[in-house]
Here is the input.
Amino acid sequence: MKLALKPLSVIVLLSVVMLSCRGQQTDKPPIRHHFNMNFQERFNAQQENPFFEDGMAMRMPVEGTVARGNLRHDVALFEGVGEDGDYIDDIPVDVTRDFLYRGKDRYDIYCQVCHGGTGDGQGVIMTGGYGYVPAPTFHSESSRNMPAGEFYSAITEGIRTMPSYATQIGVEDRWAIVAYIRALQRSQNVPEAEMERYDLDLAELQRIFDEEQVRAEALAAARAVRGDDEVSVERGERLYIQNACQACHSLDGRDLVGPTFLGLYGSEREFTDGTTAVADEDYIIESIVEPGALIVEGYDNVMVPYTHLSESELQSLVEFIRSLSDE
Ligand code: HEC
Ligand code: HEC
Here is the structure.
């Protein structure tokens, strides 16, 4: 067969061979005829930039800048406060049946483990002995008087040692939870006269309640028997950690949420009601099991009663606190 290549085919073939595979690599940048804007001076995040007075390349947004979709001018809705800056009493969202159920759903996911299914502060985290700061009950007088906005703020900002849940729970859901907590509060605090409107056997309810009390007491007694009777500074120190007292009481004189234990024993205490007392054994035990009775001047009434501690546990805590004073 005669090989007959037309001149044009030869040129095409040759150019393909010569231009496509040049047979070697290069580290040099590709040849560009025009740079467009491919090469410009720029700064990495956190880098220095002498152009600005503060030397920072990253700039703060101009004051008053609002990210798209974040114009939160409704402070009642977003912060739970009124024009005067005080917490609002009313929930600034329409409370419907569905909304309440949504609140229950979210409450059961996010709050129940600590604050308990009925809001009594006896969630599994609290009763399991994990040494967490006790969650307060929502059925105290002070909790019932707490404005709705303060509950909202506790979820949004956290409160004392409780962290914020803002990243997990959206604004509407926070209000739904607040509405549900209100429902829980009502459920546990119905005046007797109002109860009569409902078709309930109060005597039967009382009987069930009494039975539960007896069971709870038996359980506490059993626990007290099981726990050993040792009273010692070491045991007190362990209890101090296990019960998360250290979240609020330091041992080195630092002021946390509560007063330091350093030098507490034997010192004179001043209370918000104007009275004073010397911190002896009785006073310290009372402060632990009934912290609301006397409030130390300069502090808030936020300590939860530690009623589950046995006699020897309380004594050990006293010994531990005593060991932190010179006397
Ligand atoms: C991991 C446990 C835990 C979870 C979960 C939790 N809390 Fe708390 N909460 C606490 C503790 C502990 C305190 C007490 C903090 C303190 O006094 O330092 C507290 C305090 C509060 C208070 C203040 C009560 C008062 O009387 O001062 C409110 C209100 C509250 N929580 C609401 C909520 C809501 C609503 C949720 C669910 C979104 C929630 N908490 C989830 C542990 C928890
Ligand atoms: C959530 C924070 C918190 C936790 C947790 C806590 N306390 Fe307190 N405690 C306080 C605050 C606030 C006060 C001061 C206000 C008052 O008198 O109730 C206080 C007061 C006291 C006092 C009286 C102190 C004084 O200066 O006169 C004693 C004693 C005490 N607590 C012991 C304990 C022990 C023991 C534990 C752990 C089993 C504990 N507390 C856990 C917040 C807390």
Summary: The mean pLDDT is 89. The pocket of heme C (ligand 2) is lined by residues 133, 160-161, 243-245, 247-249, 257-259, 264, 269, 279, 284, 287-288, 291, 294-296, 299-303, 306, 317 (CB under 6 Å). The longest helix spans residues 202-226.
